[in-house]
C-alpha cells in the first residue's frame, strides 16, 4: 500500500459500533444518508479511495472498474453475496474483493426454516384472517395446511447456510436431500443424514420442499427455470433466501397461480415490480424484504469480519475472505 494514510469510503450506513471502529482505525468517509450511491458517485469515491466498503445494492460492474482509477485496491463487501461485483473485472484491474461469509449463516438458516414452516402451515394467511376479522372460532376443516414432518426437503447448495438449514430441517422431521456442485464431506453428509443428488432434475422430481441456498452466479441464473419448476409435483413448495435471480419468478408466480405448485416463501424479491406484485397477491406466497441476515448479531459480526479483511489487507497480509471467481 502507499505511504499516505489509507482512505476508505463506506457506501451505506453500518451499525454504529462498526462505523466508530472504522473511524478509529482509518481515514474513513461514512455514508450520511444511507441511500445507494449512483454509479457516478461510486466512481468518484473510488478514484479517491484505497478501499470501498460496499454492500449488495452497489453495482460494481466492469464499467465501474474501468473508470475507478488506479488508487482503488480493495472492495471489502459487507455481506456474503458478491453478485453485484464483477469479479473478473476487479481482478483484471488489480482490485482484491473480500466478503463476509459464515457469520450470517445461522440467522439466514433461521429465516429459511421459518419460511419452510410458514408456507405449508399457512402462518401469514392465519394472521391476516385474524386481523381482518374472518376468524369466528375453531373449525375441524378450516385453514388446513400441510405437515412438514416426514416430508422431503431438497436443498440446492449445501454450503454454510444450506447445512444450517439441513440441521434445522432434520430436527423438524424432514429428510434432507441435496444437490451441490461438489459433494460434501462424508462425515457431514452422515451427520445430516443427507442424500446427495448429482442430478438436480432427478432431485426436484422427488422432493416436497425446495430450499435455494446456492450463490447467484452466471451459472445459477434461473437454475430453477420454468422447465425445472415443472419437474416439481403440484403439492411442492419453494423457499429462497439467496437471490431472486436463481429462480424464474415469472414462471413460479404463474405456476402457483394455476395451482401447479403449492406455494413459495421468498426472502428475496425479483427486481421486476410486475412479478413481485403478482407473487405478493398470491395467498400461498410469503414474501419478506431480504431479512435473512437482519439481526443485530449478524450485522455486527459482518461488520467485524469486514474490518478484519480491511485491516489485514492494509497491513500487507492476505485478508481471510478473499473472493476469487473460481470459489463461486
Ligand atoms: C448477503 O450477505 O449477501 C445477504 O444477502 C445479506 O442479507
SS-based structural class? alpha/beta
Average pLDDT reading: 96
List cofactors, ions and other ligands. (2R)-2,3-dihydroxypropanoic acid
Shape: globular
Tell me the major beta sheet.
7 strands, parallel
Q: What spatial order of strands do you see in the largest sheet?
A: 8-7-6-9-10-11-12
Radius of gyration: 21 Å
Number of strands: 12
Spatial separation of the terminal alpha carbons: 27 Å
Uncertain residue segments: none
Explain the overall architecture:
- Helices cover 36% and strands 14% of the residues.
- The chain has helices at residues 16-25, 39-47, 62-67, 87-92, 105-118, 123-131, 160-171, 186-192, 200-204, 226-229, 249-257, 273-281, 296-314, and strands spanning 7-10, 27-29, 51-54, 74-77, 96-98, 152-156, 175-179, 194-196, 209-212, 237-240, 263-266, 285-287.
- The radius of gyration is 21 Å and the shape is globular.
- The chain contains 13 helices and twelve strands.
- (2R)-2,3-dihydroxypropanoic acid (DGY) binds at residues 56, 79-81, 104, 290, 292-293.
Amino acid at each position: 500500500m502507499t505511504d499516505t494514510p489509507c482512505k476508505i469510503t463506506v457506501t451505506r450506513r453500518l451499525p454504529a459500533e462498526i462505523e466508530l471502529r472504522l473511524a478509529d482505525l482509518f481515514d474513513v468517509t461514512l455514508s450520511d444518508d444511507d441511500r445507494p450511491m449512483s454509479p457516478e458517485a461510486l466512481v468518484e469515491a473510488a478514484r479517491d479511495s484505497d478501499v470501498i466498503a460496499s454492500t449488495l445494492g452497489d453495482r460494481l460492474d466492469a464499467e465501474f472498474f474501468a473508470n475507478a482509477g488506479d488508487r482503488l485496491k480493495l472492495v471489502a463487501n459487507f455481506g456474503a453475496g458478491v453478485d453485484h461485483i464483477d469479479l473478473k473485472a476487479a481482478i483484471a484491474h488489480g482490485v482484491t474483493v473480500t466478503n463476509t461469509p459464515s457469520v450470517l449463516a445461522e440467522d439466514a438458516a433461521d429465516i429459511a426454516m421459518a419460511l419452510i414452516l410458514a408456507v405449508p402451515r399457512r402462518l401469514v394467511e392465519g394472521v391476516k384472517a385474524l386481523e381482518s376479522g374472518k376468524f369466528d372460532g375453531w373449525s375441524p376443516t378450516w385453514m388446513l395446511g400441510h405437515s412438514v414432518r416426514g416430508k422431503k426437503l431438497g436443498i440446492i447448495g449445501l454450503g454454510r447456510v444450506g447445512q444450517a438449514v439441513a440441521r434445522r430441517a432434520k430436527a423438524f422431521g424432514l429428510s434432507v436431500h441435496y444437490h451441490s456442485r461438489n459433494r460434501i464431506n462424508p462425515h457431514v453428509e452422515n451427520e445430516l443424514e443427507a442424500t446427495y443428488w448429482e442430478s438436480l432434475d432427478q432431485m426436484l422430481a422427488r422432493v416436497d420442499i425446495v430450499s435455494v441456498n446456492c450463490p447467484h452466479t452466471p451459472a445459477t441464473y434461473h437454475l430453477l427455470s420454468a422447465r425445472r419448476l415443472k419437474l416439481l409435483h403440484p403439492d411442492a413448495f419453494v423457499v429462497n433466501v439467496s437471490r431472486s435471480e436463481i429462480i424464474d419468478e415469472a414462471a413460479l408466480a404463474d405456476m402457483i397461480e394455476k395451482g401447479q405448485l403449492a406455494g413459495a416463501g421468498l426472502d428475496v424479491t425479483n427486481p421486476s415490480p410486475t412479478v413481485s406484485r403478482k407473487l405478493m397477491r398470491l395467498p400461498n406466497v410469503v414474501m419478506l424484504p431480504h431479512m435473512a441476515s437482519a439481526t443485530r448479531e449478524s450485522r455486527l459480526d459482518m461488520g467485524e469480519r469486514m474490518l478484519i479483511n480491511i485491516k489485514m489487507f492494509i497491513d500487507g497480509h492476505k485478508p481471510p475472505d478473499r473472493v476469487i471467481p473460481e470459489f463461486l
